[in-house]
Specification:
Layout lengths: L20 H10 L3 H14 L3 E3 L9 H8 L11 H6 L19 H9 L8 H9 L11 H8 L3 H11 L12 H8 L6 H12 L1 H5 L3 H8 L3 H12 L29 E6 L2 E6 L7 E3 L1 H12 L5 H38 L1 H6 L10 H8 L3 H8 L3 E3 L5 E3 L6 H14 L9 H10 L6 H10 L5 H6 L1
Parallel strand pairs: 2-5
Antiparallel strand pairs: 1-4, 2-3, 5-6
Length: 461
């Protein structure tokens, strides 16, 4: 799909039969992941003048949306009570001894020590006032106009002192929005990636939040790897610089954000019931260009249309229509698969516990949905689904019968007494109580496959 769908794939048999290009295109689109689909759409729009993407009326990007993309942990419940913070679950069990050390310097004292030497003597009262307007997260909580009225200083002098404040550490302090805070942190960086990151934050924040690097790469004629590095630079920024002075704060170095897999299908539940959300481009956002559509209708009714123009218009209009239909078919197929999983794998989808995972094959799923097995393979291969507990798993999980037993064995060994490890025979007995009958040698095979030690070696490990 790197060059769109200009060159239709034609499969010819010995009898001279030819596969319909529409079927081939539908199969190709169905096999694409969410990111690959976006790239294919962009490529097709660039090559096909009859296809266009409808401009969506997007709501303004909020600070919460930016935080959800770059620092989801910042949206967790918070409290000023240090004991509450300490009781929250932490993925890192290691002790950060810097958290136990007492500190006598607050954020505001730290800012005063830097800011006051920067400003003239007559502006020191204004500088003191500005520092007091910084909240615990490092943001300016009062508009500059109100500060000017409250202090009696001209607005120009307030903005001058504020510009000095924004050069203080921690980087990003004094901003009024998350976007502005991130830009302040990148202000002094001079690498290509940092320059691109600034452009992304200023002009392409929606593409960053939607993880669409190819669109930015084409806009600035940059390599996709450079755009990815710019994305990485943004993800490493700190949205709340003032919190480094808060007790119990987990620094950015400890709160490492691992890149997550983007699900192509989301199965979620709320008070209204279960929902199947197919991620990726909505076919309703694609349309045939109005000028091409009108001209196509005119030429159908014309008695003697220009042959070359008719060929051009017809080819691109039909190609656009087939492309939109293929995107629609992909969404419909994934939705049907999601609804099937909700109905037949509800235990696993709800809890994420592998003991509730039922045996399922692509052949059985294809038969129940009334489609060819290859359709299911293309729709699920290399794709991921987010289940009810928020976990993202590969579609492969649903089609590997042995995986259920392997995961159950891992769970059993994770809770065993390390001083009295379970033998393979004992594990088989526990599995039998849970409704899974396997022989001791089968337990041994699965344990070896997952590189788990025998009971004797686990005792001495």
């Amino acid at each position: 799909m790197s060059q769109g769908v200009r060159n239709w794939t034609r499969i010819e048999s010995g009898l001279g039969l030819r596969v319909d290009p529409k079927i081939v295109l539908t199969s190709q689109i169905l096999a694409l992941t969410q990111q690959e689909l976006e790239q294919a759409i962009d490529a097709e729009i660039n090559e096909n003048p009859a296809l266009e993407r409808l401009e969506e009326e997007q709501a303004p990007i909020t600070d919460e949306a930016i935080l959800r993309a770059i620092a989801p942990h910042e949206l967790r419940p918070s409290s000023e009570d240090f004991e509450f913070q300490r009781s929250l679950p932490n993925d890192d069990d290691s002790v950060d001894w810097t958290e136990l050390a007492s500190t006598t310097t607050s954020l505001w004292e730290h800012l005063r020590a830097q800011l006051l030497p920067m400003v003239p003597k007559k502006l020191e009262p204004l500088a003191e006032y500005l520092v007091e307007c910084i909240n615990e997260k490092g943001y300016l909580a009062t508009p500059v106009e109100e500060i000017s009225l409250a202090t009696g200083y001209p607005l120009e002098e307030v903005e001058l002192v504020l510009s000095h404040l924004r050069h203080c550490e921690p980087a990003g302090v004094g901003a009024t929005t998350v976007e502005e805070c991130l830009l302040l942190q990148l202000r002094d960086e001079d690498t290509i990636e940092s320059k691109l990151a600034r452009l992304i934050l200023k002009h392409h924040l929606d593409d960053f939040l939607a993880r669409k690097p190819m669109r930015i790469a084409r806009r600035y004629r940059a390599l996709p790897e450079v755009v990815e590095q710019a994305f990485k630079a943004i993800l490493q920024l700190c949205p709340y610089p003032g919190e480094t002075f808060c007790p119990g704060h987990v620094t950015t170095s400890r709160a490492i954000r691992m890149p997550s897999v983007v699900p192509d299908l989301i199965l979620s539940h709320d008070e209204t019931g279960w929902h199947v959300d197919v991620r990726g481009a909505d076919p309703n956002s694609l349309s045939i260009n109005r000028a091409y559509r009108v001209r196509f209708e005119q030429m159908r009714k014309a008695a003697h249309p220009d042959k070359e123009e008719r060929r051009h218009v017809t080819e691109y209009v039909k190609r656009a229509a087939n492309f939109i239909q293929s995107v629609h078919q992909r969404r419909l197929t994934l939705r049907r698969i999601g609804e099937y999983l909700l109905e037949h794998q509800s235990g696993f989808v709800t809890t994420g516990q592998y003991q509730f995972l039922k045996a399922l094959t692509r052949t059985q799923l294809a038969k129940d949905l009334g489609v060819h097995e290859s359709t299911i393979s293309r729709a699920t291969m290399g794709k991921f689904v987010q289940i009810g507990n928020g976990e993202v798993v590969a579609f492969e999980v649903f089609f590997k019968p042995a995986l259920r037993v392997q995961k159950m064995i891992e769970d059993i060994l994770a809770t065993e007494n390390p001083n009295n490890p379970l033998s393979d025979e004992q594990i088989a007995a526990i599995l039998k109580k849970k409704g899974v009958e396997v022989a001791r040698r089968t337990v041994n095979k699965y344990r070896d496959r997952t590189k788990l030690l025998s009971s004797r070696k686990r005792r001495t490990a």
